[in-house]
Amino acid sequence: MKKVFVLLLLMLSPTIFAQSQNFQGFGLSIDYALNSIEDISTPGGSATSKSGIPGVTADALKAINDQWLVGVYGTYELATTDTAGSDPDAYNPLEVGGKVGYAFTEKLMGYVKLGYAWSKYSYPSYYQWMSGPSYGIGAEYLITNNLFARIEIAQQNYKTVYWNDGSSDRVKIDSYGIALGWRF
Fold it and tell me: Which of 26, 157, 174, 179 has the most CB atoms lying inside 10 A of its own CB?
């Protein structure tokens, strides 16, 4: 019985794992994403445009074994994703969710993320909040013990927004990003 208790205690105690430990902790990064926004209006048609958007991401990761990590993240875009240089716009999208990472080496981790996004969708004289699921894949590379670089492909799928005049808009934002960050 004593051996079982000691084994159980060892399994439940905080453990640091070789490869995944390098990515464990709180991270803060400055991001830059090339966003492609698609707006499908009813009635009307669809408009697509691309714009470069800076952002900030905070995440917290915990190693669960030698290679796997789990965690949470939040991203706030510091600018507006614009449709064709005119209104309507998706103002400062905010995204939160969970991440699952896999440490391929001591310096390279791949991950998938699943979250939820919010943005203020506006037109010249009115606005509405829109929200919807988001997901993506990415990779982080440790440049030093704390400094990392990240690449990511993600998508925000907003639910349809209905306006008072009976029209509607469905918005999707595809994002191709890079980041430079610090893991504490």
Answer: 179
Alpha-carbon span 88 to 172, nearest angstrom: 13
Please classify residue 17 by burial: count the beta carbons closer than 10 Å to its beta carbon, then call 0-12 exposed, 13-18 middle and 19+ buried: middle
Neighbouring residues of 171: CB distance < 8 A, sequence distance ≥ 6: 37, 38, 39, 40, 90, 119, 121, 130, 158, 161
In sequence order, what are the residues at sequence separation of 6 or more whose Cβ sits closer than 8 angstroms to the Cβ of residue 69?
20, 23, 24, 61, 62, 63, 99, 100, 101, 102, 103, 109, 111
Which pTM was predicted? 0.80
Q: How many Å apart are CA 48 and CA 70, to the nearest integer?
A: 34
Dist CA 168 CA 163 (whole Å): 6
**Nearest residue to 135 (alpha-carbon basis) of 152, 148, 110, 120:** 152
Of 52 and 60, which is predicted with more confidence? 60
The rounded mean pLDDT for the chain is 83
